[in-house]
Amino acid sequence: MILVLLVISTIALFLTFVYMHQSATRLLLTAIFGIALVVSLVLVVRNDSAHYGMEQVTTTKTTPLKSAGSNQMDLLMYQSVGTADKHRVYIYKQTTGQKKISHTTASTKITNQVKRTTGTTKLVTKTTRWTYKSNAAKFWFGIADNDHELISRHNTFYIKKHWVVLSTTQAKKLSTLAKQQAKTLKSRAKVYVGNEVKAAMMKNPSLSKSQLAKLEKAAAAKFQAQAMQSMIQQVKTSH
């Protein structure tokens, strides 16, 4: 509405100054329309440059966080924006069965942070926007279409200690490496589990079948975790 007032006062000032004869009425109207023009112009500039009539409002949203990778590994992925890796777009899921992955937005107003937690994995998003202080302010300046203008957004990913953070390139390399070494790792795992079982039976020959089964399962899981960690380090250090 302030822009409408600016246009009307400009036209009225022009018509009054050009077409009216010199008189007290002309001077009065010229002063009124001139003041209206100056005031509306100043307010438009202040609204645009200093967000006059507006205030900052921050909202916090918590979103469930699930792995963007396979069921074998809890994974948070990111895509670097630019060559210096100063900005990242993080890729994740909100539910396990989610088909289309979610991602953050690439913008200088948006920052991301990854924190380790012993609690629930989640994404906490704090968003700060400009909003009008009142309906009157929105009535006068809302035509500028700057209500709820984004100031900043900070995404904090809370992930547990065992989660892995990889770039999309590293994740692809890891997948390829795991397929290439699948047969080798399978044979090595068999040997590793066998050695663990033999060592345990030497210490306690009276182990039951159920105890041996638990031992084999634990040894296989341990080997798999160590092998995966080794491959992760390999893709992280490779160029």
TrEMBL record:
<feature type="transmembrane region" description="Helical">
    <location>
        <begin position="28"/>
        <end position="45"/>
    </location>
</feature>
<keyword id="KW-0812">Transmembrane</keyword>
<dbReference type="Pfam" id="PF16069">
    <property type="entry name" value="DUF4811"/>
</dbReference>
<protein>
    <submittedName>
        <fullName>DUF4811 domain-containing protein</fullName>
    </submittedName>
</protein>
<dbReference type="InterPro" id="IPR032083">
    <property type="entry name" value="DUF4811"/>
</dbReference>
<keyword id="KW-1133">Transmembrane helix</keyword>
<keyword id="KW-0472">Membrane</keyword>
